[in-house]
TrEMBL record:
Protein name: Globin
Organism of provenance: Polycladospora coralii
Keywords, ordered alphabetically: Heme, Iron, Metal-binding, Transport
InterPro entries: GlbO/GLB3-like, Globin-like_sf, Globin/Proto, Globin_bac-like_CS, Hemoglobin_trunc
PANTHER family named in the record: TWO-ON-TWO HEMOGLOBIN-3
Family under the similarity heading: Belongs to the truncated hemoglobin family. Group II subfamily.
Length: 129
């Protein structure tokens, strides 16, 4: 019988997802296009991201168990997500993936899904300044 390994398992499970979240959010908080979208107390946001990424990568359905269906686009409607902000988010995530050394096929799979998700989250055009 062939064994199947999820991306979550392939990257190292709980520990690696926590490392990724911890590498990601300082970048978000420092990014000029993103920092104003997040609260000063980032800990609850980090915990939700941990729960979500665990589930998103094939681990236990922690996010759904605690918060219901992710409904990402609907949950993010209150926040002005422009193409620039989606790309900034991806830049922060790419650097976090590098920092925690997620590589190879697992990295490619994660990255492709995150790119699609980030672009799906765009809910308004660029700021008209």
């Amino acid at each position: 019988m062939a064994s199947y390994q999820t991306v979550y398992e392939a990257i190292g499970g709980e520990q690696k997802v926590r490392e990724l979240v911890e590498a990601f959010y300082p970048r978000v908080q420092a990014h000029p296009d993103l920092k104003d979208l997040f609260p000063a107390d980032i800990i609850p946001v980090m915990e939700k991201q941990y729960l979500f990424l665990t589930q998103f990568l094939g681990g236990p359905a922690l996010y759904s168990e605690q918060h219901g269906h992710p409904m990402l686009r609907a949950r993010h409607i209150p926040f002005p997500i422009t193409p620039t902000r989606a790309n900034a988010w991806l830049q922060c995530m790419e650097a976090a993936l590098d920092e925690v050394n997620i590589t190879g096929l697992a990295r490619d799979h994660i990255w492709n899904r995150l790119v699609m998700t980030a672009h799906h989250m765009v809910n308004q055009p660029e700021d008209q300044e």
